[in-house]
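pls design
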């Protein structure tokens, strides 16, 4: 078995595809974690308004996606998270206004 091995002649396309997939997941996960931490820091630690923070983080997310050469799926994800956060923030504001009287 070991005598069949010749250096540099092995098909590594499966290995390369696995590594490329791992790197894509790592970049996506890192960027999503970074924008989540940025948003939470702006809202809770700095005390910015949630809507201004959300818009700022969306801009940073788009710029980060451009800098890292992300595909269209990244921008669709950012837009979806923006809309989801906008809806959730609006619902929380409505409950806050209701409870405040």
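designed seq:
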């Amino acid at each position: 078995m070991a005598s069949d091995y010749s250096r540099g002649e092995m098909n590594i396309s499966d290995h390369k595809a696995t590594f490329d997939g791992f790197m894509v997941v790592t970049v996506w996960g890192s960027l999503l974690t970074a924008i989540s931490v940025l948003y939470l820091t702006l809202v809770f630690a700095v005390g910015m308004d949630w809507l201004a923070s959300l818009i700022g983080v969306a801009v940073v997310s788009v710029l980060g996606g451009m800098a890292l050469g992300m595909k269209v799926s990244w921008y669709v994800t950012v837009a979806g998270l923006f809309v989801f956060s906008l809806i959730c923030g609006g619902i929380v504001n409505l409950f806050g206004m209701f409870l405040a009287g």
